[in-house]
Amino acid sequence: xxxxMLSCSSAKYSESFTPGELWxxxxxxxxxxxxxxxxxxxxxxxWFGEHKTEGEEGNLANAGVHCYxxxxxxxxxxxxxxxxxxxxNSNSIIEKxxxxxxxxxxxxxxxxxxxxxxxxxxxxxxxxGALSGVAISDNITGPYKFIHARRANAGxxxxxxxxxxxxxxxPSKGQSYGGGSLxxxxxxxxxxxxxxxxxxxARDMTLFVDDDGKAYHIYSSExxxxxxxxxxxxxxxxxxxxxxxxxxxxxxxAPAMFKRDGKYYLMMSGCTGWxxxxxxxxxxxxxxxxxxxxxxxxxxxxxxxxxxxQSTYILPVQGKRxxxxxxxxxxxxxxxIDGRYVWLPVDFQGEHFFIxxxxxxxxxxx
Length: 366
Ligand code: DGJ
Prior knowledge:
This protein is mainly β. Helix content is 2%, strand content 39%. The protein has a domain at 1-6 and 25-150: Glycosyl hydrolase domain, family 43 (Tachylectin-2, Chain A).
């Protein structure tokens, strides 16, 4: 059954999180910001995510990127569409009906611009484009102006390229590969070399700004088989050509990165379309690697589905040192607008982080 608008009576003031339940904004409408990210500016959190619509077609970008604001993380004000898709038949690469996923926004202190990155697939072409879109704005809530969409790091080898990649056989460009898990397309296919000149594929993605102001694009590349971590240009609108390959052949999707006490952490999923799968985690002393896998961070997740969700962001809570919230999506692909949000506290032990289920919780539980 398609739930119309997912709206109810006016929203009540809330003081807790209820993972997986409907989450109403200030207008009493279920929040529409899927596979999102967060930015904290001048005392407010801003949540950006995919605006989904009803039905299966609602997984396509029919509106754009939605923005909400909050001072307390429980109660959210609808700030409208921050980046709108262009009208149908406009010949724009971001026209209505394209695939526009996992938007993230960061602020560049030198240019004073808000910079949004997202995974873009031109309309009607499935997932083979694997482009990275960029849009900028002077105001956090937008409107964002689309500036370009490209493959990543064209013409550059990664820092950890091997001689074999440079000289090995290159697979044909016409060959298509399924979403995949091993051994669908192992490293020996040399997809890295195939895409060297035209640029690397980038699908699921996130952004991370380090303490020194350098920003990174973290994306599933090489037909989803390998995660790339790439330094952005100083203005955050381009790749710099400096990047590394990580978790080769592990098919990591949905990357979410955070830093704690000088160490970098990643949470990721496996690669099973809209169906949830077992979470993965990793730690590194340097953002460009080497990364060490730590295993599934979810405790008591008996179905091994990341509590029926998929990671999108790990949010540092403002004013609370070393406290973080896991943000995940519980997809509802047959009626995309009904996708839910699973937010849970992140715990730490040694160099590991952990996530446990709670039916209801609040920031005092951190
Ligand atoms: C899993 C990804 O994590 C999502 O962002 C989306 O691309 C779906 N696959 C599409 O099947």
